[in-house]
């Protein structure tokens, strides 16, 4: 890896958040969705990027098997202002299923998600 940019999402997160009707923060027009954290992991055979977005209290998920052409999968509503995003692969998980752990700064909640399938 040499730090070369392979993809620019432009305003796709804004579009997806608007489609999901998740914009409820009066400051979002200043800072957009404000991605705070990202985690990369493999769920089954799919490489997934998890993008925590502080202003919309959600995590977006992208299939990154083709890093130059990521595919949007879904948005999951989380606690207030997600700051930390951590992926634990199934082989390291106590449940033997992949886990996504999201910590939120405003409400102090930690949520754990496990995917069904991708």
TrEMBL record:
It comes from Niabella ginsengisoli. Pfam families: choice_anch_I. Residues 26-113 form the Choice-of-anchor I domain. PANTHER family: MESENCHYME-SPECIFIC CELL SURFACE GLYCOPROTEIN (PTHR46928). This is Choice-of-anchor I domain-containing protein.
